[in-house]
């Protein structure tokens, strides 16, 4: 579904580790250290930490609810496509699987389902499984304005469902609205600001899920960098397979770093997630490399995630609380070749990525 025709321009960016740690949406938290207990790194008592027990009732406030950003690095969960409009039963089963089998803390939604009440089902399943959600307003690739209705429905549900603000970590405009030129950057900024205002009472941050290439190169002169300034956190698409320099996944760290360094140097210390992040096991009409040496197979899909594990400490050290990465995507039924599961529901390779280091 992602067609890359543009040539990637590599820009030398610099690591900058002294940027202010500005987290306007992060609730303040008091940490009590109980010196009587031999603390063997107990799980942080916050949502959606691994080991956190969901309360039996909906809390009355968001104080001390969300985990601090600096705990949300390494593997955090899956991109999860909803275009098949999964039933509530299926959402519950798969969110529980993400939580228990893979120690996922989040799902990052991808695609769209316009069924009435669908986001209520997402909230229900996420609450039940004890995982957070990166919600998404889907623009699609057709340039139509269906996203306006989706935006209104989603914003409405975030306000009306009492559990929604306790599971929704961020609202994304996506996927790749800048890359797809669906809105001019000033119009996208207007949308981001309006959503921030709309969601301020719920303390839900707003972002745009897109490539470094889109902010840095494609929209260098018409406001791409201003979009980066307007968003609360960074949802970076890291898809090194499409680089003109791609070969095998094991060689892709410099490509990842090029884009990461752009987000570090231009991102004002904001929290960074790799929201759409992976390496395909097969090519398809929408998944074609821009390098003749790029290899798509299961070994490379597996190697790519192992590479991120190998660089866990580097990702943890990134300003803003370290990089939390999502695996794109949960199943080959959702996007061919990117799944951790194949279309028959079997794991394509052992997958137990680090959640801390
Ligand atoms: C947020 O937007 C939704 C959808 O447009 C609207 O129904 C709701 O009233 C808005 N809420 C606030 C607080 O602005
Ligand atoms: C990539 O590196 C890993 C770890 O060193 C190794 O097991 C794997 O075979 C390598 N993959 C390829 C395609 O060379």
Automatic annotation (TrEMBL):
It is found in: Cell membrane. GO terms for biological process: cell wall organization; polysaccharide catabolic process. It is a single-pass type II membrane protein. Its main location: membrane. GO terms for molecular function: glucan endo-1,3-beta-D-glucosidase activity. GO terms for cellular component: cell surface; extracellular region; fungal-type cell wall; plasma membrane. Its EC number is 3.2.1.39. Keywords: Carbohydrate metabolism, Cell membrane, Cell wall biogenesis/degradation, Glycoprotein, Hydrolase, Membrane, Polysaccharide degradation, Signal. InterPro entries: Beta-glucan_modifiers, GH. Residues 1-22 form the signal peptide. It catalyses: Hydrolysis of (1->3)-beta-D-glucosidic linkages in (1->3)-beta-D-glucans. The keyword Signal applies. Belongs to the glycosyl hydrolase 17 family. Glucanases play a role in cell expansion during growth, in cell-cell fusion during mating, and in spore release during sporulation. This enzyme may be involved in beta-glucan degradation. Active on laminarin and lichenan. PANTHER family: GLUCAN 1,3-BETA-GLUCOSIDASE (PTHR16631), GLUCAN ENDO-1,3-BETA-GLUCOSIDASE BTGC (PTHR16631:SF17). This is glucan endo-1,3-beta-D-glucosidase. It comes from Hypsizygus marmoreus (White beech mushroom).
């Amino acid at each position: 579904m992602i067609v890359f025709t543009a040539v990637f321009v590599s820009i030398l960016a610099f690591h900058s580790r002294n940027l202010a740690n500005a987290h306007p949406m992060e609730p303040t938290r008091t940490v009590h250290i109980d010196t009587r207990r031999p603390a063997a790194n107990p799980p942080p008592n916050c949502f959606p930490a691994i080991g956190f027990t969901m309360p039996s009732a909906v809390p009355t406030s968001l104080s001390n609810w969300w985990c601090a950003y600096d705990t949300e690095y390494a593997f955090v969960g899956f991109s999860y496509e909803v275009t098949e409009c999964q039933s509530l039963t299926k959402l519950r089963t798969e969110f529980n699987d993400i939580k228990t089998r893979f120690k996922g803390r989040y799902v990052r939604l991808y695609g769209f389902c316009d069924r009435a009440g669908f986001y209520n089902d997402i909230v229900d399943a996420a609450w039940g499984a004890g995982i957070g959600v990166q919600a998404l307003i889907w623009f699609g690739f057709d340039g139509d304005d269906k996203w306006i209705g989706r935006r209104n429905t989603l914003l409405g549900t975030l306000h009306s469902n009492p559990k929604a603000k306790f599971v929704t970590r961020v609202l994304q405009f996506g996927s790749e609205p800048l890359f797809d030129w669906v809105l001019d950057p000033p119009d996208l900024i207007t949308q981001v600001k309006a959503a921030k205002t709309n969601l301020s009472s719920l303390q839900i941050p707003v972002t745009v899920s897109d490539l470094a290439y889109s902010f840095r190169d494609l929209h260098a002169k018409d406001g791409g960098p201003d979009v980066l300034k307007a968003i609360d956190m960074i949802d970076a698409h890291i898809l090194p397979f499409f680089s003109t320099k791609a070969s095998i996944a094991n060689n892709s760290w410099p490509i990842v770093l090029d884009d990461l360094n752009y987000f570090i140097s231009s991102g004002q210390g904001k929290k960074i997630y790799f929201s759409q992040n992976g390496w395909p096991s097969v090519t398809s009409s929408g998944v074609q490399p821009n390098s003749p040496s790029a290899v798509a197979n299961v070994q490379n899909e597996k190697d790519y995630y192992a590479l991120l594990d190998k660089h866990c400490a580097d990702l943890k050290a990134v300003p803003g609380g370290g990089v939390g990465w999502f695996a794109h995507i949960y199943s080959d039924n959702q996007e061919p070749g990117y799944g951790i599961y194949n279309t028959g529901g079997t794991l394509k390779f052992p997958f137990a990525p680090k959640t801390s280091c």
